[in-house]
Amino acid sequence: MTQARIKAYEKIRKDLTEAPLLLILDWNIPFKLYIGACGNELGEALHQAQIIDDKPTEGSVCYISRQIKSTEARYGASQMECLFLNMKNPKRNMLRWQIAIKEYRGNMTIVHNAANIQRNADGLSFWALSNTPDNPAYVRLEAEPYIPIEGVNITNIGTEFFE
Question: Which Pfam family, giving just one, matches this sequence (predicted)?
Answer without folding.
Answer: RT_RNaseH_2
